[in-house]
Design brief:
The protein is an alpha/beta fold and 142 residues long. It has two helices and nine strands; from the N terminus they run E-H-E-E-E-H-E-E-E-E-E.
């Protein structure tokens, strides 16, 4: 059997709020609770199991590879919901997306403070792309 990533636990102060936020942005379903977890499963079968905790939560980074169409839809939901976005993980390019590797990418924060990212081309898939380092303004973004 080959090795496959199966699931991870996402710590949050409110599993319902965080799971529903991610599911909404990515147009996924929130699964049935499996105490103490609330699962959201991606298309390739990886499950993010949201768990409510009452402790300090270190910020984690979760990145999702999506199609161009899925990116458009997710970005539109982020803008409509007034979720702040940025083109880079350090916040130097707010209200913008990046064009790295000839694709598109954006960073945003979930209700627990985790750093989320959606992008359309895997990192390093086109290192010679003239779009590497380019950012674009997103109308209506906060």
């Amino acid at each position: 059997m080959s090795v496959e990533f199966n699931h991870t636990i996402v710590l949050t102060r409110d599993r319902e709020k965080s799971a529903r936020f991610l599911a909404h942005v990515l147009d996924l379903e929130v699964g049935a609770p499996a105490e103490p977890f609330l699962p959201v499963t991606t298309a390739n079968g990886v499950t993010l199991d949201f768990a409510t905790v009452d402790t300090e939560i270190p910020v984690q980074h979760y990145a999702f590879l999506v199609s161009e169409e899925e990116f458009d839809a997710a970005l539109a939901r982020l803008v409509a919901d007034r979720v702040p976005i940025q083109a880079d993980p350090h916040g130097r390019h707010p209200r913008r997306i990046n064009r790295n590797d000839g694709g598109r990418g954006v960073y945003f924060t979930d209700p627990a403070g985790h750093a989320l990212e959606i992008f359309t081309r895997p990192y390093g898939s086109d290192p010679a792309s003239p779009l590497n380092g380019v950012t674009e303004q997103v109308p209506g973004a906060v």
